[in-house]
Amino acid sequence: MNLKAPGLIFEGLDLRGKRFINCYFHHTLWKNCRFDNSRFQMCFFDDSVITNCHFLKVNMLQCVFTMAVLQDTTFRGSDLISVNLNRIKSRHCDFSESDLYYSRFIGSSLKETLFVDCNLKRVDFCLSRMKRISFRYSNSEEAYFQKEHRG
Amino acid sequence: MKLFNHFAAVGFSNTYLVGGDSGGEALLIDPGVMDVSLLELIEKNSYYIRYILITHSHWNHFGGVNTLLKIYDAQVYSARNNLEEIPSMELKEGTYKFSSMEIEVIPILGHSDDSLVFRIGNFFFTGDVLSAGRTGTAPDKISRDTLFLELEEKLFTRDPHGILLPGHGPPTTIKAETQLYQKYEKHR
């Protein structure tokens, strides 16, 4: 798929096992949608609102969620490599058992969000506000939490 | 136009491949490393590399050029007339045409004295001057102030929906970076 669909509302879609390359979904609203086992490459969900969606075991590379609102949404068991999650607002979300290598959460607001058993190598959480977050069994020592890591 | 990204674990840098919809002449931006996966990306899409554009003369952005030049009859372009003995055509501020692609060259100083941003359509290839959530590093305060001023004047004034493709890390948008810059970076 190579879609351009800014500003649209999607509800109850079953998009499991699909392939999304260079798709532009900025400022969209997703509700009760399933993307399990899908692949995403350079897709843009910036400024979107994503509620109660399932991104189980997805493969995501170089995608953008900056300034998105994520609520009751799971990315469990996914590869989220070099994904831009800067300034997201996340609540009741689950990134557990995921590989988040080189992704960024700069300036985000993360509430009741799980990062259990994740690979957090080079993940940037600088300037993020966190409330009731779990990094249990994850290599959080390899993530960045302060701006001073800048090379 | 088709756009591909290649990530090199060496230097953690991005290389971008830009070409037509059905193969033919293509250009590479910042081939920091030339490896099998980059070669496969080029060949599987039936591209022939005719142009190599370098955002700035740091090794992790042009380290793959020598190998590429053994495979393809390509011309290298950067802000300098050579990159450690690799001949390069010097680009200045302005608009150039590469095959059917129009490319705007925007010099942005501060991270280095030869940093260029390339614009193709609504895509801005920023090298190291800006990445998602971070302005580029600068060697001293004057360079840092220069970088901030150049970003404010030459990049943040552009279409907020413009897509930024940095040399390191994930893509971002001008809107997102302008807001992050105003909130966190400007007052640092």
From TrEMBL, chain B:
Transmembrane segments: none annotated. The keyword Transmembrane does not apply. GO terms for molecular function: hydrolase activity; metal ion binding. Pfam families: Lactamase_B (PF00753). InterPro entries: MBL_Glyoxalase_II, Metallo-B-lactamas, RibonucZ/Hydroxyglut_hydro. Its cofactor is Zn(2+). It comes from the Bacteria. Residues 12-168 form the Metallo-beta-lactamase domain. Keywords: Hydrolase, Metal-binding, Zinc. SMART domains: Lactamase_B (SM00849). This is MBL fold metallo-hydrolase.
